[in-house]
Fold each of these.
Amino acid sequence: DLDNDSLQAFYMVQEALDGADEALGLGLGSVNWDAEGLLIKDVGTPVEAGDAVTKAYADAIAAAAGNVPTPDNPGDDTKVLTASGGTFTWQAASSSVITTRGDVVRGDAAGAAERLALGASGTVLTSDGTDAAWANIGTMTTQGDMIRGGASGAAERLPIGANTEILMSDGTDADWVEWSYESGHLHGALLSQDADADHDINVIGFECRDRANSANIIYNGEITKQLDATWAAGDDAGGLSSSLTAPAVDTWYHIFAIIVGGSADVGFDTDVDAANLIADHTATAYRRIGSILTDASANIIDFYMIGDIFLWKVPVQDFSDNNPGTAAVDRVLSTPLGYRISSLVAYSLFDAFTVEATYTYGLIASKDTTDTAASITVHNLTCGTGDGGDDDVGTSVIEVPTNTSSTVRSRVNRSSTNITLKGTTYGWRDNLGRMH
């Protein structure tokens, strides 16, 4: 009987261990329940926030109004997600499926999603306020073409503008217009004599507004033009207007930036308004950028340019007048004819015998001013010591504007054969039409 009792107890322990193996328990070394990959059945309806739920309960929540359903492949391929009454639904586009790269989705007349096929090459997506559609604006043919609204408001092609043009609005339309420098603008155009110093002028690149304020003249780089050859386009070419035939002696030639055949260039003319270049070579725009003078051999007199100052390499004595008297005298200077410029002249007033113990006064003035006698109160040149010394001289470099005949006025307060007035021109200041 003792053996039977022991065997019976062993069976009971064995059954208990088998039941424990099949029961939901804690994971080994863990405080979490471990179902060991088995399903949990017959879960009740959750009440508390931490209660477990069944699959059916979770599916019902996912399908509730306002939640986004997961598409069921492959049936939902190419469908679009739409909303209606607070519920999201996967549905096919009303026209057809998206078939082509570049297709877009738009709303149809009823507000449902539909496919808008990719437009043709060169068309753009536009709106007429009611619908969106691809519109033909003209073929884009050139790099830089743009799109603007046409007269009816439809999109259209605006071809790229010309060089230096800018896009500008007139309040009604947008278009390319020439960008213009301000009136009188001049930059660059440094002049110098080239290898053939007697006949050739080199001009460093320039940008300027023309005399009529109607066009820009722009030349990049440097250009050399020949005074002793008939004008031809381009660098190292003739520059003299053809009707002038050859350089003349003791003649002023004006250097012009010009436009001929749509291209910027440089030419020489004796006319202050480039009339010969216009008539002979159909120059459509011009702007003076300097002036040169020839000598008795028709060669260019040596000069150099610093900013807007032109200086003779060898100063020119334009007059030496003994006993000039007290009346006004016109003095013609070696400065450009045809333009009002500021002359740079050294004037010397000599008094060879001043025993009278008095001063001699001179006045150099523009012809545009009122003719005024030289005096102790009105003068810009003087000589004498007031003590009766001999051979007194006074010298001063005076900048005076000329008239278009290269002329200024001189006055001396005393008349005597001992008095001599001299003028030596060093150069001139020329703003070349700039606006200041």
Amino acid sequence: MSELPSTSAGSGVAADWSRERRTAWWQPGRALIGTIRAYQRAAERGGLLGVVGKKWAAVRHAWWSAVTGCDIPLNARIGGGLAMPHANGVVIHPKAVVGVNALIQHQVTIGMKRHDDARLPILGDGVDIGAGAKVLGAITIGDGASIGANAVVVRDVPAGAVAVGIPARVIGQRGDASAAVAVDGAREGVSGAA
């Protein structure tokens, strides 16, 4: 595993490492990501110190994985600046790729659509994934895209797009008033049906 760059090769976006830095002891999501970073640094270091570092990182990773209920492997391909404000139940396949400065909410799954999938999702830089969303199969989520809560994404999402629903469909561009109106309309339809 090569050292993760501070910027994304595709867009040149710099990783905001402060999003991963622990500012208090009890920040399980940041602690879990920290163990993954420590393991990957130790693997790069090699030698006796690398072996000891990997083992210590693996022990801490097991602890924080149990605390959070997350399944994010030590060899995950995650760009810098990952934010998981409520790290609970997040599953990331080891062959999936997550770009820099991604935001992943709780209960998100990023993985295979079928057991025999050869390729897995590739998430661009600055992607926001809402709570409970599933990103499945050989798809690409473009830079700056937003995936709504509980969406099931099985097709590519272009850069800057907002995708919602089951199966997810693009409803507009991020920051676009029409996307906000569509989301608000969906909320009103749900609340009005009660």
Amino acid sequence: MTKSNPAAISLITALVLVLLSGCIDESFPTPTPIPTSIPAKLSTPIAIDRGNVHRTGLYDNAGTPQLTEVFWRYSLEDAAYVTVPIVEDGVLYFSGIKEPNSELHAIDTRTGRLLWKQETVRYSSTPTLSDGVLYYTDQTGLHALDTSTRKEKWNYAVRHGFDMSPAVQHEVVYFGDDRGNMHGIDSQTGEQKWSVKVGNSYTSDPALGDAKLYFAGDIAPLITGPDAHRQNSLYAVDIQTGRQLWTFAPPDSELEYKFFYDVMEANGKVYTINSRGDFYGGDNYVYALDGTSGKQLWRYRPQQSAYNLAHIAANGDLLYVTAESRDNDNNSKAQIFAVDTATGQKRWTFEADGSFTAPSIAGGILYIAHHDKGIATIYALDARTGKEQRSFKFDHMVTSPLVIDGDVLYLVVGNWNARPNYIFAIR
């Protein structure tokens, strides 16, 4: 059974232990100002994975000035995995994945106490909140849950659902399934406005641009054996009709698996990485494309060939990319580097042993979680220069990007199939 906050004495003891392990620079310098690219305000509040409908990792608030304490944690005793949370109006929402079904949780951000939870089908996604309605996907399709009544308004069924985070704009919900289809659904009625098929396997989380929807789609091989290559492409469709506008595939046709990961839009450009990794087999480039034409503007990859690209974020004229390498003893080393969005040239690099999560940005500071050998560190870097401003350490493994809400950071702590998992609130 999922528990809310521990008893007061246990909580105080836990916080003391965490604070003793903190590593804080209390005399950090003022960060260098950075040009911002805050997404335009929508007509209704929206909370979505990666901070905005463009999926850039940019949050429209000042961020936390301290990083001095874990002031609550929420334990999920029987969840094998916890999705990235979203936050809106004092409530944190996320899914706890377990057997045979999952649960959608709503947590009071002031206290870390459970407000309510709702059972869902196994492998439900990070939800998206718009105008008081939570939209999430699972293996059965797309669901709309009224947060005031906790009753399902409607559901849109698909035969092969997938736990991808939906996007919402102008009363349309966009989501992809596990058979290469991207759907546009009326947010009020649950009726289909359009559907487009681009492959026969997964589609990524969609990112919104100027009247366009961007996403990656996968074509799984229809044969087996040495010639069974997978083709992964990037797509742009019209948000009103679903009409396909352009397609982009990696230029290196000899790749066994062309896999795009982390698709986002910023200032009319689309960014993605063709991750190499242990499974993906891509060319290990980060790509910048013109959002209107799909034309490649530039591509960049680390000079150190051992580093595999992992995640991206963007703000103003800088694109942030994480990368990781492992030696023969399975020791890992991580980098995050900033690339000029106009030229594709590297501006700065920050390194650490271990692994980084996807970066998040607020108030000119880049926040990134890091773990190495059971120790987690949250770094706050000057987004313009990459210089460390402050950091905070604690004993755990971090599995999600940092979600920024004013002066508080929220993150998932734990590991796949390692119980319990936690949500931490840090300020």
